[in-house]
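Reviewers asked in the last cycle whether our approach scales beyond single polypeptides. To address this, we selected a multi-component target totalling 632 residues and predicted its structure end to end. The input consisted of the following lines:
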Amino acid sequence: MSLFRLAWYNLWRNRRRTWITLVALAFSIMLVQTSHNLSTGVYSQMIESGVRAGSGHMTIYRSNYLETRDEKLGFDPQAFIHQLKSMEAVETVLPRIYLGGLAQSSRESRGIVLSGIDPALEQSINPILKRLPAASQLPDTISRKALVGDRLLEELQLKKGSKFVVTLQDRQGEMVSELLRVHAVVHSGIRHLDRSLVMIGRQRAAALAGMPDEVHELALIMKNGVKDIPADEIEALLPANQELNLYFWDEAMTNLANAIKLDYASQQFMFLIILLIVTIGVVNTLLMAVMERTREFGTILALGARASVLHQMLFLEALILGGLGLLIGTFFGSLATWYLVEKGIDLQNWIAGELEFGGVVFDPVMRAVWEPLWMLKIGIYVISLCFLASLYPAYRAGKIVPAESMRK
Amino acid sequence: MMELIQLRNVLKSYQAGVQQVDAVRGVNLQIKAGEFAALAGPSGSGKTTLLNLIGGLDQASAGQVIVEGCNLAECSSVELADFRLQRIGFIFQSFNLIPVLTARENAEFVLMLRKVPAEKRHARIDILFQQLGISGLEQRRPMELSGGQQQRVAVARAMAAEPAVVLADEPTANLDSETATDLLFLMQQLNREQGTTFLFSSHDPKVIGLADRVVNLKDGRIVE
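The resulting structure, written as structure tokens, was:
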């Protein structure tokens, strides 16, 4: 017989109470683990969607471009783009030009952002373009064919094949215009983007802006996503004389990064509240156990046990309770995570339309990812909380006066 | 025989609400090693309080309680716990066995606290259970035992660590008279065979009659 065994027996004196506490503990652990795994999966999906449609896992800009969006801050990537493309970690490099201007149809005019892209590269990466059938893709970088956001198309009262004029300021400050034709309509699901997006071939855009060979953005898509990005190696390739800066996705896409951070923080707060409520349950269970066993604790002390023996016994009871809750909770948490990894939750069954978060449209099928380290971390938190929950009951038990307790 | 327990002018007062209750009033008492002594007296005469003071469960309000040369008033709570563990065996009126433990585990409890290895514990309890006539009941829990059997397990627990003195507070109060007499005979036998000092309290004249020495208490004082 050991203290552990005694603690184990003690826990099962009141089976119903112990089971209720265990179920609450296990359920909250399952909930916390599963929600974390699911939200981590969803965040990854959002980041991937965001970086592929937006700035890439890493982005190269001229100094101050990100802050000012000054179109004059372009750069020539020819000196190092091939080296970037040949890096092991890099899947592809997307050169882009962004120009602010005005689109005019025969009836309406609207402010736009003209994006100059390399269609062949973007089609395989950018989720907005991936959805388009092959016939709707831009044929090359020089043609006058344009992809137009669906809302813009509607507002300009255009249709597929219609002509429209884009007017903007070139590098020298001169107003320049270009006649374009609607080749296909794109729908990103992001309202402001769909109201302002015009995509054409990069060479055509560069020629229009009078900045041949220059780009505003080099988006780097990495093979392993945001993990293990060789930022130092990439930075070493950048020529010093061009004042280029390398940005991680969260610096370039601050809206998305901040939205995820905020969501994650509120989720952590919820986790904390859930675990605190459960801790109060554990404190209650142990405190009740102490009050019910006052006479017995008095006997144990009378027999010669130090107060520390009672402390140890209650710590053990709390740890066994926490450990069992953790095992059961992790088992069901793993089952739920497995289901969410394999099958996911299709939000389209409940929510109509596009799902936008932090300026990024994400896949309606939410999938979890395995985060074993985090699950372990929750385990450590729970065990620590159970230990903390036993402190007050243990203190109360240690304060029992044997002679008084046996008089009761 | 040397004096194992000495009480010198011991006084114990309780505060019951606004009233002060003097449970023990100036008691002087010596118990020699190996004695089989009884504290007799009606309810409220101070028997339990006196046993609690000797066992280090309570502190005297005045006077000295000296057990094996150790003045208990000078001991810290940890030292008192160690003193009880090493030197005192307790038997309680309502047995006070731990309900979730088996008879063997209850009897071994003090040995476990003293970190005696399992094999030695088992051997010691086997002998005691045989002596007390409860062999075969080792795996039963207190609920599955009669009152007399439970009190024998409590005696085994008190004797397991070979204490200097066993203090028994009304050990037969919850037993029928036959079982009570049997238990007292067993305690007497252990006293004779192992030389353990026994000090027990009772208000039952039949039980008191088995003691080698009787100390009569009334209103917290020893009376002739």
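Residues 15-53 of chain A form the longest helix (39 residues). We regard this as preliminary and will revisit it once experimental data from Aim 1 are available.
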